[in-house]
Amino acid sequence: MNRHIYTHIKQLGLSDNLSSVYAYLLEQGGAAPSTIASKLNMNRTSVYRLLTDLSIKGLIIETKRKNKLYYKVSPPRSLLNYTKTQVRLAEERDQKAINIFDDIEAIYKSLPHKPTVRFFEGFDNLISIFDDVFYQEGSYEILVLGNIVDLEKDISSKKLEEHLEEIYTKGLSIRGIYSDENREEGVTQLYREKTKTDFPKQAKYLSKEQFPYTSQILLYGEDRVSLMNAHEHTAMGIIIEDKVLYQMIKLLFDLSWNSIS
Predict the structure, then answer these.
(1) What is the pLDDT of residue 261?
(2) Distance from first CA to last CA of the chain, Å, rounded?
(3) Model pTM?
(4) Which residue numbers in the chain have pLDDT < 70?
(5) Residue 96 pLDDT
(6) Are 151 and 178 in contact, with CB atoms under 8 Å apart?
(7) Residues 78 and 59: beta-carbon distance below 8 Å
(8) Among the residues of 149-200, which ranges form H helices?
(9) Assigned CATH for 3-74
(10) 116-259, CATH topology level
């Protein structure tokens, strides 16, 4: 089988087996199901199913030779018709999704309890959590508890500027309980240079002895809780979407906030 043709046919969105059968028929000029099964080392029942699928897609033609089924590829333009049909169907599905999005979202939000959890492993992947933190809809308060100085230093200046822009344009506010190690002016200074305003952050601090961990809890949006262990060799994080858990941890955060002078 011509692997070059097979590779290109597969790129049109056909499965491995469909691409194999099509490429074989194209190269051979046609074949009976039994021959296809033998040459491609496939189950004959599976070959019949694949041939039916290709026929429905208009990519091959079914004929008979000596009262036996025989298949050959349709004229090459059938490939163009197939891909154009896929594009049209995708556009139609996209429009249908847009049309029912509001109804689906309303039903989803009405469900009583639907927590979801996303897991991130590795120091580099923790940085992507911040995209979720700063790109929620509307204006909201971000609550922070922790110390992830090394991770924050690892965030590229471009990414940091994108986050600061979101804070500024959305009018986000930040309230945090930090380790003393976080008494740095880098972020605050960069924000002031970019926006000509003060960084919207309220902060209280614990000593390194009181908070010796390289970890952080973030509360943001209406229902998001993020937990991160930013240790370089065991870095991991999770994002939990659950309004009840969010409200419970926010209550604990506020109690802690009010207890620190």
Answers:
(1) 77
(2) 76
(3) 0.54
(4) 1-2, 112-114, 149-158, 181-200
(5) 92
(6) no
(7) yes
(8) 149-154, 157-170, 186-195
(9) 1.10.10.10
(10) Endonuclease; Chain A (3.30.870)
